TrEMBL record:
<keyword id="KW-0238">DNA-binding</keyword>
<protein>
    <recommendedName>
        <fullName>HSF-type DNA-binding domain-containing protein</fullName>
    </recommendedName>
</protein>
<dbReference type="Pfam" id="PF00447">
    <property type="entry name" value="HSF_DNA-bind"/>
</dbReference>
<dbReference type="InterPro" id="IPR000232">
    <property type="entry name" value="HSF_DNA-bd"/>
</dbReference>
<dbReference type="InterPro" id="IPR036388">
    <property type="entry name" value="WH-like_DNA-bd_sf"/>
</dbReference>
<dbReference type="GO" id="GO:0043565">
    <property type="term" value="F:sequence-specific DNA binding"/>
</dbReference>
<feature type="domain" description="HSF-type DNA-binding">
    <location>
        <begin position="3"/>
        <end position="73"/>
    </location>
</feature>
<dbReference type="GO" id="GO:0003700">
    <property type="term" value="F:DNA-binding transcription factor activity"/>
</dbReference>
Amino acid sequence: MPHGRAWKVHNKRLLVGEPILGKILGLPSYFSFTRELSEWGFKMLHQAGPDYGCYYHECFLRGHPQLTALMKKTAEPDFYAYAIARKLS
């Protein structure tokens, strides 16, 4: 977006049809792409207006690539480790 704080997929068909998702990112579908975004902490903006449908992350800012080093992928919970810890206590 012009302000550099959010970005938008303007053509989902083009993104899915290009080798970007499959060959470069290793993702089979647009749904997988959006799930990855969520795991990396990107939020979809739902307010009406020019930023509707855009994705935002506080460490993904145009002109400041060094901030991306602060981005962390959220780990999936290990439910089995939790159950074992509960039994031990």
